[in-house]
Amino acid sequence: MQEAPHNRRSRSRDLLVAAACGAFVAVMVGAAYAAVPLYNWFCRATGFGGTTQVAGSAPVQISQRRIAVRFDANVTAGLPWKFEPEVNAIEARLGEVVTVYYRVTNMSARETVGQASYNVTPDNTGIHFQKINCFCFTEQRLKPGEKRDMPVVFYVDPALAHDAETQSVSAITLSYTFYAVRQPEPVANAGAKAGRI
Is residue 190 part of a domain? Predict the structure, then answer.
């Protein structure tokens, strides 16, 4: 017995709707995975939200205009570190390469690992704040009681003075927050725990 044309059309339509729904779900899952890297790329490219830039080299010119740069240091709960800037503020010429240090101390009796997030305020100055080198580019691992002086090498692009959104800015705050990084448990300990279960 042959299937009625109406049933064939209905089945084709159902298959088409199911395929469209499946494709939609696949696109949404892909977008969810791509959202964070795309957002990070967007922030780095535009300075959105105070995201600083990474410079490959020093600028070719230095302006006579000066700007105050303030330094802020924070540590989230769960990371037993003391973290502070060497100085609270400096004054630098636009385009001048500056090195400042932050000091971190592991206050615990165990090795700990942290990663710093960062931004500048006002937010619209992020596109002009150029880091050449920074401890924030990598995780920091500290032994019990270890102290470390960590450099930040940066300059504020002279273009800040010609940008309509930032030309009146007289001070920028560079802020860091250290977060604890969970380390994978050693294989030997994981096996011992599994044996006790």
Answer: no
